Amino acid sequence: MIDTHCHIYLPDFIDDLGEVLDRAHKNGITDILMPAIDFDSEIQMKGMNHPDIRFHKMMGVHPCEINNSRCNLEASLLAACAGKDVVGVGETGLDYYWSQEFVEEQKISLRRHCKVAKSLKKPIVLHNRDATDDLLDIIEEQQDGSLTGVWHCFNGSVDEGRRAIDMGLYLGIGGVATFKNAGVDKSVKELPLDKMLLETDAPYLTPDPHRGKRNEPGYVKLVAEKLSELFELDLEEIDRITTENAKKLFPLIA
Ligand SMILES: [Zn+2]
């Protein structure tokens, strides 16, 4: 099983990282994809290792961090993402919930991430909060047939999910799909499983029944179990299909 979106490098895990990773391995996790928050994330990612888990870096600037101006430089982004060990570009996206102040900067940053992703032929990782229409409009505008990526922590309607898939995006399914009143499970059920990836977004967005506590990569199994229930398929089948999807979208991890 692959956790395609996990901030395992954050200080939240500093005290018990080894145990967290052992639990992830016990729950079947073979690979962890680490989206950056800003350019400093790379330094934090360096310390990651476990005998049974592969770690993969992605470089980008989170929409809530782009007021930090040096992060807007296209050249630094291109340089940071060019390395062979960088499997994707992100996370980028739009967040109008936490950050109304820098909406225009967020859009500029998103477009730059798209440009870099296309020129390096690497998938983009998209964060969205209260900005679905703008996010999908920019992806549509940027899509020239060469842009691939994932709408991480998918939280849209069925129509929004279809629109994203039609534009070549995958949907990252995380803890929100397990929340009783979020409604995301109802959208997910109507959308194609062969466009879905498993993720945790740890340490955030912890799935039920651990909601409210720190999230960790091993909990991706709870998300897989939710998909197994929604699609009425064995857990092994969910694992097989979503792992295949992840390797298709992120060829560098295969
Ligand atoms: Zn994230």
How many DSSP-defined strands?
8
Q: Quaternary state, please?
A: single chain
Structural class: alpha/beta
Major β-sheet strand ordering: 1-2-3-4-5-6-7-8
Share of helical residues: 25-40%
Largest sheet: 8 strands, parallel
CATH topology heading: TIM Barrel
SSE sequence, one letter per element: EHEHEHEHEHEHEHEHH
Query: What distance separates the N and C termini?
Result: 13 Å
Overview of this structure, please?
This protein is α/β, with parallel strands linked by helices and 254 residues long. The protein has a single domain (2-253), classed as Alpha-Beta Barrel (TIM Barrel), CATH 3.20.20. It is 37% helix and 15% strand. The protein is built from 9 helices and 8 strands. The chain has helices at 17-26, 41-45, 74-82, 103-120, 132-142, 158-166, 184-189, 220-231, 235-249, and strands at 2-3, 31-34, 54-59, 86-95, 124-129, 149-151, 169-173, 196-198. The protein has an 8-stranded parallel sheet. Helix 5 links the parallel strand 5 and strand 6 (149-151). The longest helix has 18 residues, at 103-120. The protein is globular and about 40 Å long. Zinc ion is lined by residues 5, 7, 35, 91, 201.
What would a concise description of this structure say?
This protein has 254 residues and is α/β, with parallel strands linked by helices.
What descriptors fit this protein?
254 residues; alpha/beta; 8-stranded parallel sheet; binds zinc ion
Helices and strands, with pairings:
Elements lengths: L1 E2 L13 H10 L4 E4 L6 H5 L8 E6 L14 H9 L3 E10 L7 H18 L3 E6 L2 H11 L6 E3 L6 H9 L2 E5 L10 H6 L6 E3 L21 H12 L3 H15 L5
Parallel strand pairs: 1-2, 2-3, 3-4, 4-5, 5-6, 6-7, 7-8
The protein binds zinc ion.
